[in-house]
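User: Hi! I'm working on a homework problem where we have to compare a predicted structure to a textbook description. Could you give me the structure for the chain below?
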Amino acid sequence: MRADLVTKIEKLRKGNRPEALVNAVGGILFAEMRIDPGNPMWEGGDRLLFSEAYAEVVREAFLRMGCGPKDLPAAGFDTLDICLATMPYPRRLFCLVDQSDTVSISRIRDGLSDQVIVICPIEPVDSPRWTIHTCENLSLIDLESIFTAHRAGGNKPLWITAPLSGSRLFDIQPSASLPSLAERMSKLGTETAFDVLAEVNQLRAEGRDIISFGLGEPDFDTPSHIKESAKRALDENQTHYCPSAGIPELRESIARYMQRTRRIPVDPDEVVVTPGAKPIVFDVMMALLNPGDEALYPNPGYPIYESVIDWVGARSIPLPMLEERNWNFSVDDLASRITSKTKLIVLNTPGNPTGTLLGIEVLREIARLAVENNLWIISDEVYSQIIFDSEFHSVVGFPGMKERTIIVDGFSKTYAMTGWRMGYGVMNRELAKHVAKIETNIDSCTCSFSQIACVSALEGPHHESQYMIEQFSQRSRIIVELLNGIDGVRCLPAQGAFYVFPNVTEACRRLGLRTANELQKALLEQAGVAVLPRTCFGRRNEGEDQEYIRLSFATSMENIREGLKRMKQFIEK
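Assistant: Happy to help. Predicted structure tokens:
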């Protein structure tokens, strides 16, 4: 054992911390990862993820290596999937896992390899998939021996079971550990756009000039008449509980709006108002899907669909959206994925992340398959008013579809009201009762004065929203033109929403990068441009070999031109 390593680790062994934990942290950081804060490329090397319980000793170890406070990694496993997708061979991913976080590691379903090394107080639930070593008292010699043996052979990930505990606040005895989280937490995903936003904000706080094409949020303010309506409602003390399904005035207004825009009869009893549109997706899936049911969802697509399907115990079946079909899917492919267990199809038009519409003939065939196979449809139409040179069509308008379709819509995008958290669903009357009951259990009701403001949004003037949509249309043409002017990039026109989803496969090859994840990181760190990689929008489809990034053009024309200039200079250098 190297003398310098022992000396460094001895400095960590204080405050009555468990010896096994100190040895694990020191052995990984000082001996295995060989982190060198003086080398700007060290972040591209091995990675360490760790439970919150171990944050104190990990933080001290990083500081003893000479890292600054901004270099310290955050605790938790939110970036686990991204790490797995972007780990370049032969780099490794180390995980220090508290008992309460063990279920998180079971999320490692794709890309599991011998690059993954876990140290945890208990054994994994899927033991056959791991090389397991158990140590009653993890010494430095034990750790070095295990790492050496693992490097020499074996093609499974490594799991070291040792009696770790978090800090001086915890006893080493297992009885002091908190009960574990529910197993369902291992199935719950996230929306990683917010992770990129946090990174952008951190870099800006450090003085970096970052142009962000990341988060899908209008860069306009809420129209003034909507804000004034909310102010009046507050002055009139409209601040009390209201019906779980929403105030009658708003549900009536939504019903009228649906009749105008979808050309179907809608009764207020078929409307449920929620704090944002996401709860409709969650509530409806809770109400409809049983464990073992199958639900088809667009991929690449909004990540919450897959997350909630898995969360409720159903089986998520990806429906590949294809660039060569203008980001539509093959109806034959859809039909082939429908089985006796299929209960639900999720649609999103205009789509996130692609910005394209489902064509009327595709929707007609979806309606036919839904009726023939007695399926539910969730149609996410939150961008339905942000349309450019095409016409929006909803599947709900086809024969036999009104009773089996749940329209998801809201106010965030069309009225620049993302922070208001106002959404709604339109569905058959019986299902609406059950969804409202779920809202009673979760939220009680949606903010009353915000609902009054939303009546003004639907019934009042629309010139500010229309101006915003016209600006998005102009921006869409410019960003597509500029992207297609970069060597190694190709991009289909946006038909709606405020996203484009260019193919960057050749750009990655030009730069010697393997994946869009590596390109995203390089653009952020070296060019000062934030984008989202394809993996933010679902796992790769079988046979998918192209690389994509998403850009939101919900930013100024000046930022679009400057950001694309930086991208072009970086990729073509």
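For your comparison, note the following. The CA atoms of residues 28 and 94 lie 8 Å apart. DSSP finds 19 helices and 17 strands in the chain. Good luck with the assignment!
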